[in-house]
Amino acid sequence: MFTFAKRLAAVVIAVGLSGAVASASDYAGYRKVVTYQTVTTYVLKVVPYEKAVTKYDYCGKPYTVIVICYKTVEVPVTKTIAVVKYVKVCDY
Question: Is the dihedral of CA 32, 36, 37, 43 positive or negative?
């Protein structure tokens, strides 16, 4: 597997250095395979919430006030990404 990755990297580098655009047919003996993988990422989101706060008037008597506060939470988001692999094809 490691030698396959080294050979594939060498082919990609050689094609990239030559300035030519490579297609799947340029890789003799390899076939392009696209698979899809689900990845979970986390997005920060600001969420409002209510909080009861005790305040005092000018006479020193307490009263309760509802205050809206904001907090930042992480929300999980799932995405589907395409993964491209080149698989060696044996023609017998």
Answer: positive
In this prediction the pTM is 0.43
Query: What tokens appear for 29 in the block?
Result: 């003996």
The residue among 43, 44, 46 whose CA lies nearest residue 79 is 43
**Residue pLDDT, tens place only, 19-77:** 445 554 555 678 888 999 999 999 999 999 999 999 999 999 999 999 999 999 999 99
Q: Please name the residues in contact with 65: beta carbons below 8 A apart, sequence gap of 6 or more.
A: 52, 53, 54, 55
Instruction: Please state, in angstroms and rounded to a whole number, the distance separating the CA atoms of residues 25 and 30.
Output: 8
